[in-house]
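Key idea: predict the complex, not the pieces.
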Amino acid sequence: GENVEQHPSTLSVQEGDSAVIKCTYSDSASNYFPWYKQELGKRPQLIIDIRSNVGEKKDQRIAVTLNKTAKHFSLHITETQPEDSAVYFCAALHNAGNMLTFGGGTRLMVKP
Amino acid sequence: DAMVIQNPRYQVTQFGKPVTLSCSQTLNHNVMYWYQQKSSQAPKLLFHYYDKDFNNEADTPDNFQSRRPNTSFCFLDIRSPGLGDAAMYLCATSRVRGYEQYFGPGTRLTVT
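Result:
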């Protein structure tokens, strides 16, 4: 089955700095890679996603890059703000099924 | 505008006393999922329905069952809750296979 590794597990940045979270996956057949943000006690919310036919996608301060050859994808947050503080999960979806395999999560703390 | 609704939001049950959690959706999505999420961990898929087709994850304990009486509703039954079943239970939906999943707000289960 699919295995998704996520690093780092915790990340602390100063407000205004950039944050980068990296994930690797094992199954080359995975073709959809969402990123979820989860604030304490709340639901995971989809913030950006990318499909395997695209190398990069950007939405305002958030961008995701995908390297299919190396089987890794990354989340980039620029100009971080305190409200970006949350746990972020990457995930990979295998084309043949419905199952999302999640990474272990990254706790991002943005210090004012 | 709630799209995936879970009730109750908080549930306390006694050790061994059956409990049912419910999920409903207004999105008319074909797929509904149940996840278990323990503190500081990624959501773990228990099972999912694609229409009426039930798909159980291999490591989901027999203690967990699910019902989907119609497109809009899905239930999680825990037949004999143990202390280790205390967690947040998240329901999610997706339109079809391989598309983004939308999470409900979750039900936090406490077992006393």
